[in-house]
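Justification of resources, computational component.

The compute hours requested in this renewal are based largely on the per-chain cost of generating structure records like the one below. Each record pairs the submitted sequence with a full structure-token output. That output is archived, and it is also reused by downstream analysis tasks.
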Amino acid sequence: DSAYRITTAPAGTTPVNVTLIEDFQCPACRQFEEQFGPVIAELRQNPKVAVNYMPIAFLDRMSSTNYSSRSANAAACVAESTAKNGDWTTWLKFHDLLYANQPEEGGAGLTDDQLNQFANQSGAQNIKQCISDQQFGGFVADATKKANITSTPTVRINGQDVELTTPEALRDAVLKAVPNPQ
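The structure output for this chain reads:
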């Protein structure tokens, strides 16, 4: 799959899927994280919900160095090196650091060395080569195509796009989608 699935759902259960399609270059995605982040964190703890992060390269044209692709690749490097056993702590720290240090649109974006520094700061080690070689470039390109969106961020509940109004409205929509146990 092209999304990073974070859930406390017991194996074999079918949780409600909340998919966040985002671009680390996107100012609206950063605003979404700032505004909706606490509710998303709460939803990640709900055993009836899976939060699927799907970083894509939608805004390469807004950077002179294809920062969208490079940052999404770096996120894949961090995921591959640290989340094998389902512990997404390091990846989430890296995700948050990318937004906290988001470069202006139109510039070069963060360098590969800076991406590697943030990865190290998050707890990922030995991924400098993965970042500089764009090891997951094809994966990022595929995810971007699969996303099939017109803007970021896009949030989907069980595959359906959701209009983003307030964090509380998103929480309510997700909880409403949880099937009642029979």
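The first strand starts at residue 4 and ends at 7. The two ends are 30 Å apart (CA to CA).
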